[in-house]
Write a structure and sequence with these properties.
The protein is of the alpha+beta class. It folds into three domains: about 110 residues, Four Helix Bundle (Hemerythrin (Met), subunit A) (Up-down Bundle), CATH 1.20.120; about 90 residues, Histidine kinase CheA-like, P2 response regulator-binding domain (Alpha-Beta Plaits); about 170 residues, Heat Shock Protein 90, CATH 3.30.565. Helix content is about 50%, strand content about 20%. The strands form two sheets. Strands 1-6-7-8-10-9 form a six-stranded mixed sheet, sandwiched between helices. The chain is flat.
Length: about 400
């Protein structure tokens, strides 16, 4: 871990030094995009290695770099100063920002983004076995900067009740128990096995010592290091794009990404980006009315990748979809469709329920493009929605 941290610091300081030199008054749009990628990557690494002040400052700088208008305005001096301070905060965790600079940032970034991106080593099979509330607890723990642990232990049937109770009491001293799952690991030994998922700021070694009397096997599902940079950058760009659209529409969104550490091919990264681009634009423009949340989950295993994009917006109105489908001669008035079949109509070419066409949506190409991309990758896509409760797009892409 120390080697990774040192590599991260060395690479980040070099990138920042070069960026500050390149950031001239006539800096190009291409440089803006490159600067955004560099700062966003540094933000992710800073979060992973505990440079909280640096991560926060990087987030402020990427707000400026995310939009062409902000970059084109008289912000080059502010950016150069911010980059210099970001380098200082990576070299010294206790570096404080000058009050004058902080005031300028606050004036520039009136609304800070509410984005969290977590690349985790939690196995997809483990995460899927958790209930919705338990999954939410995991995400909340990650947001608080805690690590997720698995403690697997077997109990003799005769002593099960007491030992299981004692284990939970001891484990609760330094962690929050998220879930207790049955485990087959100890079945051959005639024991009752459990896999306890917990969130804690303690280290794996500390928890191992704490549970020494129970012979528990502790596995740490740390957040991924900066080796999964391509995946992180892809999600970062999607998040920034969603936030930019929301600001243009006068809306507020909170966007959370939880993804398993994996390294898709460049082609798959491109396809995932295009899929998410359309789905997030669709959620911000159509689903979210004034404010809301969008949650992206991406888990990869030996069978393939599971991608879900969920929002808590107004949901899809099946009656409105049906009426528009009849209007566009996709179905007849006499066709009888159940709700899932009706919702599938939103993927039809040039289909849109928008009342008017804008630069963001209304042309009916977004969801059609998504379905084409998914099918091109031999995948499957489905949609679930409830009025006033939100919409979930579920996509499976085979390996």
């Amino acid at each position: 871990m120390n080697d990774l941290r040192q590599n991260f610091l060395a690479e980040s300081l070099k990138k920042l030094d070069n960026l500050r030199k390149d950031l001239t008054e006539d800096a190009s749009e291409e440089l803006r995009r490159e600067a955004f990628r560099r700062v966003h990557t540094i933000k992710g690494g800073a979060q992973i290695f505990g440079f909280e002040k640096a991560a926060k400052l990087a987030g402020e700088l990427e707000n400026i770099l995310a939009e062409r208008e902000n970059f084109a305005a008289n912000n080059k001096d502010l950016l150069r100063e911010g980059i210099k301070l970001l380098a200082s905060s990576l070299q010294d965790r206790e570096t404080n920002l000058p009050a004058r600079f902080t005031e300028k940032l606050q004036n520039q970034n009136q609304t800070a983004p509410k984005t969290d991106i977590f690349l985790t080593r939690i196995p997809p099979t483990v995460f899927k076995s958790l209930s919705n509330s338990e999954q939410t607890a995991v995400i909340s723990a990650l947001r608080r900067g805690e690590n997720i642990f698995s403690a697997e232990v077997g109990f003799a049937p005769a002593n099960f009740a007491g030992e299981y109770r004692d284990l939970r009491i001891v484990l609760s001293e330094k962690s929050e128990i998220v879930a207790a799952l049955p485990s087959e690991k100890f079945k051959s030994a005639g024991k009752i096995g459990f896999q306890i998922i917990a969130a804690s700021r303690a280290s794996r070694d500390d928890l191992q010592k704490l549970l020494a009397g129970f012979s528990a096997e502790i596995i740490s599902y740390d957040c991924a290091d900066n080796s999964a940079v391509d995946l992180f950058e892809m999600f970062a760009h999607i998040a920034a794009h969603g936030e930019n659209i929301a600001r243009r529409l006068g809306k507020e969104i909170g966007l959370t990404v939880l993804a398993s550490e994996t390294k898709p091919s460049a082609a798959n990264i491109k396809n995932l980006f295009d899929i998410l681009l359309h789905l997030v634009r669709n959620a911000v423009d159509h689903a979210i009315e004034k404010s809301g949340t969008i949650e992206i989950r991406f888990f990869a295993d030996a069978d393939g990748c599971q991608l879900t994009v969920a929002d808590n917006g107004k949901g899809i109105d099946p009656e409105k979809v049906r009426a528009r489908a009849i209007e566009k001669n996709l179905i007849s008035v006499d066709d009888v469709l159940n709700e899932p079949q009706t919702l599938e109509l939103i993927f039809a070419s040039e289909f849109s329920t928008a009342e008017k066409t804008t630069e963001i949506s209304g042309r009916g190409v977004g969801l059609d493009a998504v379905k084409c991309l998914v099918e091109k990758m031999n995948g499957k896509i489905s949609v679930k929605s409830r009025k006033t409760f939100g919409t979930i797009f579920e996509i499976f892409l085979p390996q």
